[in-house]
Q: What sequence folds into this?
């Protein structure tokens, strides 16, 4: 389906009518992926630190679509299997599977898994260090032929196709144009990573049983995707890198620069983008989603250095961003409920005194604000100004404009 930075999202969906064979194929695939990383990749690249990999496998019904607009389309997979497989990924070298997958496995494979701590209320089983080079008897019983020399040769070919001398990573001095990026031409930048996830959409996918319900969901997702894409790309503007199922991932790195003022402006713009997302969800999309009252957005943000590139060949390129702040922003979003914005301490420290900063409360190492939209901020500023005796009014054309002592500039959010 998609490469999400250093994570692969894939499906095993054949044979259509045999759940046991699908389960077997998916776990064989998981063992092969881990075997490749530990026994092939790390040997071909000994100058790097040893990479680790882990796999999560979940089964069930899901919705696949190729969604987007203006030629900007991406494959997506929606449903419990997609979300759960990502959530149950364990430590390096492990394979974690749900109970339904475990129950379908043949005895020889099932015996390698032991019950582990439940994740998201789901009973899971885990195997550690399960690789073909250490389990030749298992490979034989499953009729799996692992050819390490074949994969080693192919990986050496990938490596040699991209000599380090031909690759360039430059600091971004202007807004990144992802269409110009390749493996040989990447950009490094100080950026805020933003993840915005539709909280509650997976349940609607699982509940959709009739074809017309599924079609309605695809249309709604297209509408929501387009609105949030516009907020993040046009209103502020950021760089939308991927739509990952019902989640959008973007970065905001303007103004480009490394002084404190640039850093503070980037953080303020990114937070405004997050508030814009919540504003659009509540005040624009809500009126079009009358039967989806439990559908909300959860947003996570963190700031730091990131590398942005575009990987792949011949029209099958995917944009990726790599960096600690990218991983941290995703973790913040995953820990966030619908209608909430969660930011790192580094972003919180850049906030000026005022109603926006006051809305964020400490929660462990991060700060969370609930139901934070621009109309709410305007209302809070008027209330604070009234209490402080600094509320005023002045003529504005044929209207009266309310004036407060807020130094916060007007925001570009609009009802699109």
A:
């Amino acid at each position: 389906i998609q490469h999400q930075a250093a994570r692969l999202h894939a499906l095993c969906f054949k044979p259509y009518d045999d759940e046991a064979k699908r389960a077997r194929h998916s776990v064989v695939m998981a063992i092969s992926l881990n075997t490749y990383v530990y026994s092939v990749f790390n040997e071909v690249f000994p100058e790097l630190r040893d990479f680790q990999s882990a796999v999560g496998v979940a089964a069930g019904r899901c919705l696949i679509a190729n969604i987007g607009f203006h030629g900007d389309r991406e494959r997506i997979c929606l449903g419990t299997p997609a979300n759960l497989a990502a959530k149950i990924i364990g430590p390096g070298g492990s394979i974690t599977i749900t109970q339904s997958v475990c129950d379908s496995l043949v005895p020889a494979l099932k015996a390698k898994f032991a019950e582990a701590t439940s994740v998201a209320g789901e009973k899971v089983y885990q195997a550690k260090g399960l690789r073909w080079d250490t389990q030749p008897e298992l490979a034989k019983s499953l009729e799996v032929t692992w050819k390490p020399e074949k994969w080693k040769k192919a990986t050496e070919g990938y490596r040699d196709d991209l000599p380090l001398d031909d690759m360039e990573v430059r600091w971004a001095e202007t807004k990144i144009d992802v269409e110009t990026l390749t493996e040989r031409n990447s950009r490094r930048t100080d950026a805020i990573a933003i993840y915005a996830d539709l909280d509650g959409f997976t349940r609607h996918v699982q509940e959709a049983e009739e074809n017309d319900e599924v079609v309605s969901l695809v249309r709604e997702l297209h509408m929501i995707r387009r609105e949030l894409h516009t907020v993040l790309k046009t209103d502020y503007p950021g760089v939308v890198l991927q739509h990952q199922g019902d989640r959008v991932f973007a970065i905001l790195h303007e103004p480009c620069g490394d002084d404190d003022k640039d850093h503070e402006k980037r953080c303020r713009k990114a937070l405004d983008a997050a508030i814009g997302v919540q504003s659009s969800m509540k005040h624009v999309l809500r009126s079009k989603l009358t039967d989806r009252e439990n559908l909300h957005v959860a947003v996570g943000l963190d700031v730091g250095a990131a590398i942005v590139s575009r990987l792949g060949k011949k029209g099958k390129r995917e944009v990726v961003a790599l960096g600690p702040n990218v991983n941290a922003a995703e973790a913040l979003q995953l820990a966030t409920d619908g209608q909430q914005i969660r930011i790192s301490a580094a972003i919180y420290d850049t906030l000026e005194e005022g109603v926006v900063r006051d809305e964020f409360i400490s929660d462990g190492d991060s700060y969370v604000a609930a139901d934070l939209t621009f109309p709410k901020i305007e209302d809070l500023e008027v209330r604070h100004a009234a209490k402080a005796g600094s509320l005023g009014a002045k003529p504005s054309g044929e209207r009266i404009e309310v004036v407060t002592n807020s130094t916060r500039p007007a925001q570009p959010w609009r009802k699109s």
Summary: The mean pLDDT is 89.
